[in-house]
Amino acid sequence: MSGPIHVDVLTESGSQQLQLDAAPADQSLADVLRRQGMPLNTRCGQRGVCEGCVIELLEGTIVPLGDGGAVHAPGQPIEFRACMMQLPDAGHVTLRLPPRSLLAHRPQVLTDFAVNIPRAHDPLFQGPLAAAIDIGTTTVVVTLIDLAKDRLLTHAAAFNRQMHLGDDVLSRINLCMTNPEKLQAMQRAVVTDTITPLLDQCLREAGRAASDLAGITVAGNTTMLHLLVGADPTSMGLSPFTPTFIDHRVTTAGAIGLPGLGHDLPIHLLPGAAAYIGADVIAGALASGLIYDQGPSLLIDIGTNGEIILAQNGRLTACATAAGPAFEGAGLAAGTRAGDGAISHLRLHENPAKIDIEVIGDAPPIGLCGSAYIDLIGEGRRLGLIDDRGRYRFDACDGAFADHRAELDQLTGLRIAAGQGKRALIVTERDLATLMQAKAAIAAGTLTLLQNENLTPAEVRTVYLAGGFGMHLNLTSAIAAGLLPGFVPEQIKLIGNSSLAGAYLAAVDQSVLGALQSIAAEVTTVELNLDPGFESCYIEQLLLP
Q: Please, what is the Cα angle at 152 between 287 and 112, to 5 degrees?
């Protein structure tokens, strides 16, 4: 028989008493608390598959939703998921809501990344500031966080100075293999030459002191995290590709030689799943909300090392493919990273022939970044100016673009715009070939994962597109260029730097570290070099649609 229910709710900020005339029918305790102005961190959508809404029963009784007996407090706290329990028909209940389970922010876009799950405000560090860092093979991004106010203060990015020692992960691993002394050079390049000036810049722009920094969280691929701490990565260069560590790891500023900070300043490295399925993609699987989707869903992290994860029927499968640094503009005649003066988008017009460009910032164009190159391929295919093998056809469009034909280093190219000085910005056929190899690697990895699960692109509910340039990618161009084969724009969500998003979440909500570790443990890795269908798929994807 139902009657009045008295609920005492304890939080860090005090207590609150709820007096209900009767138990709400078929409502979870999470729903009841939300209606009383105390929403919980139900990041999985109340499906009972995360730890976001775990609270404690101190006194009284609660009842599982559906069938099941009552749960009583036996004199010590009992933890439970609030989304899976309901209040009893009558009586008195005392609950404790830990900070990690109280909703602080709903999904939101923060600068260059999106957080698609709700989160608590339960910082990992006790102090004024934290830094979250994404160490990419090509670029490194540092962001400064005000822990008390739970907001981003500033961020800075630069090329990873390890690029001067090797363009990609394998070249850096091989360098350490052939010359062990290069390991220290790699560590200095990322710690001293890259992260240190970026941290200094962030602190200077925020008007804060290094002594305000309470801790750092770091995401990145497995090789980058090895090189950060000076761990030998060479075992990942040979089968069976065994990393020295992949779990959550804590080090200090002094241990890695990060100057100007306290020697014991804690640095948390986020967990990864395998040698080539690193903390960056695991962070993205959480921040994007992929692991809580009904699926099938994909996360495609486009960078120097393309990483792809598929969620299907509660299973997570993932692969990695070497795309190279072309999407960052590296290795291309007119390539540049996104920043002031970079051409970010372009569109081709015929009758009369014209190339419209969008340039970042109030500056003359200095080069093209990755999104503009994708636009060029997509637009070129639309007009027939580029054929399926990546060759220019200046006889197309009634020869309208003949005046834009140019030669650079004895290579045929298309003149996009006047650059600084006398040199024009030209995209050569060699550039197109490099981009086509990069897009083929991403496309073939994606299709291989789908084919192994007997799925087609049309059956995927959501594609989360991550990566340094993904936030501003023109989806129509990406599909036309074959980067996202068989998909349509309505399936795709741009989430930006999801690796940095995961590092940020770990700093402001300490329960995230446990969630990331659980995700990493569930991932099954597909070795593409051993997959019988990958090579032929890659060759097919070298052609443009």
A: 55
Q: What angle do CA 37, 39, 44 make, to 5 degrees?
A: 160
Q: Give the span between the Cα atoms of 270 and 509, in whole angstroms.
A: 13
Render the burial of 259-285: b for 16+ CB within 10 Å, e for the rest: eebeeebbbbbbbbbbbbbbbbbbbbb
Parallel, antiparallel or unpaired: strands 492-496 and 462-466: parallel
User: Residues 382, 456: contact at Cβ < 8 Å?
Assistant: no
Give the HSE-up count for residue 197: Cα atoms under 13 Å, Cβ half-sphere: 12
- Walking along the chain (545 residues) 10 residues at a time, the average pLDDT comes out as 81 86 80 88 83 89 78 78 86 89 78 88 96 93 95 92 88 92 95 96 96 97 96 91 95 95 96 95 96 92 89 93 84 85 92 90 87 95 94 90 89 86 85 95 96 96 87 90 95 94 96 95 93 94 94
Q: Which residues pair with 71 in a beta bridge?
A: 62
Spatial distance between the Cα atoms of 183 and 242, rounded to a whole number of angstroms: 17
CA distance 366 to 344: 11
Amino acid identity of residue 88, one-letter, is: P
The span from the first CA to the last CA of the chain, in angstroms, equals: 67
Query: How many Å apart are CA 342 and CA 346, to the nearest integer?
Result: 11
Tell me the pTM: 0.88
For Cα atoms 189, 147, 228, give the angle at the middle one, nearest 5 degrees.
Answer: 20
Helices (H), 240-397: 253-256, 279-287, 370-383
Task: Let me know: does 456 contact 450? Beta carbons within 8 Å.
Answer: yes
Residue 149, φ and ψ in degrees, nearest 5: -95, -5
Q: Are 284 and 299 in contact (CB under 8 A)?
A: yes
What domains are there in the chain, each with its CATH number? Answer: 5-101 (3.10.20.30), 106-284 (3.30.420.480), 286-325+434-499+525-541 (3.30.420.40), 334-429 (no CATH)
